[in-house]
Design a protein that fits this description.
This protein is mainly α and 87 residues long. It contains five helices and no strands. Helix 1 packs across helix 5 and helix 2 packs across helix 3. The longest helix is centred in the first third of the chain and has 20 residues, at 4-23. The chain is globular.
Length: 87
């Protein structure tokens, strides 16, 4: 069973990834290819139905050409939104 805090972080990560994906015009197909998974699994992650592994997140950071530090800064902006959505 996931803790409330884990659920908040997972949703905030999904929101952050979505924001960067749109900003960089990266398709779901490109993300699926980079993660070596079907597009449906990427969709499930975006919807919060599937978790993204730590390795998967690092793969996406490479695809996005983004450092962990930059991702963390962006992630912090989405924590409150995720908290309000999970209540």
């Amino acid at each position: 069973m996931r803790t409330h805090q884990c659920a908040v972080y997972e949703l905030a990560i999904a929101h952050t990834v979505e924001e960067i994906q749109k900003e960089k015009s990266i398709t779901r197909e490109e993300m699926a290819a980079a993660l070596e998974m079907p597009e449906l699994e990427v969709t499930a992650f975006e919807l919060g139905e599937r978790r993204l592994s730590a390795g998967g997140l690092l793969v996406l950071l490479d695809l996005f050409r983004l450092s962990w530090q930059d991702f963390e800064k962006r992630l912090k902006k989405h924590i409150d939104r995720a908290r309000s959505e999970i209540k």
